[in-house]
Amino acid sequence: MKSIKVFAPATVANVTCxxxxxxxxxxxxxxxxxxxxxxxxxxxxxxxxxxxxxxxxDAERNTVSVAIKAFIDHLDIQPGVDIYLHKKMPLGSGxxxxxxSAVAGIFGLNALLDNPLKVSDLxxxxxxxxAMACGEAHADNVAPALLGGFVLIRSYNPLDVVKIDSxxxxxxxxxxxxxxxxxxxxxxxxxxxxLLKDAVQQWGNVAGLVTGLIKxxxxxxxxxxxxxxxxxxxxxxxxxxxxxxxxxxxxxxLGCGISGSGPSIFSLSRSRDIAIQVGEAMNECFQSxxxxxxxxxxxxxxxxxxxxx
Length: 309
Ligand code: HSE
Description:
This protein is α+β, with helices and mostly antiparallel strands. Helices cover 36% and strands 27% of the residues. It has 10 helices and 11 strands.
């Protein structure tokens, strides 16, 4: 029996102004998926560890198996695939948990099948997992989880995904307060139309952020990390958001915002020392509100998925 175990990383989607079009990968946390090829055709989720029993083992309702099914349907093959999912990151956290699982699964299966597709061509199948999980096939978690680094989704139709350079010493600080927000719910509360003046401000910021990343212009990165459309609505779901953000900026972060659909909050800083101080400041805020939290500090993960064994 052939088998493979793959780690895929957590991701910060949106990166403030880039709703559904910008994301980056971090080194931790992430998920591990063990895939075994068997002689009995069909996709089976054999075990899920670390999910407190919350995730479905039904292969039609789990992001890993849905992504794998889309992939093998495309290849027009019918292998037996047993899946063992090790959730090593919190669910409903805004860290791309469903994306990490789907990416680890299809990346692993592609490797087991001797790479019939290029890694970048796996993206549409990973997106099927997101479509099942939250109703829309957004790519700003799966693309960076799969490709590593900072990723821009220039277009969804046709799919056009571009990796963006970023400064080597750019650190992310992520605070995950122990509350849960379902992406589906966080999407459903958003306004369906926006003012032209807000759109102008937002696309100026997106262009500024991308330029700042490529030119390693920290000041430009910082002043472009502004979201006038999504954050004002979603921040209401996160107790203490305004204080935590103010504390992060006061402690020296370049910018701060909601990670994906929340409740995690991320900051970017230009050194590890600043990223640590920022984490302390953000954490103290949540503590003062009696909300427990986890903290992650990471460089941008340029690699994406990693074969463990
Ligand atoms: N772009 C998505 C959203 C990311 O904000 O809904 C979900 O993690």
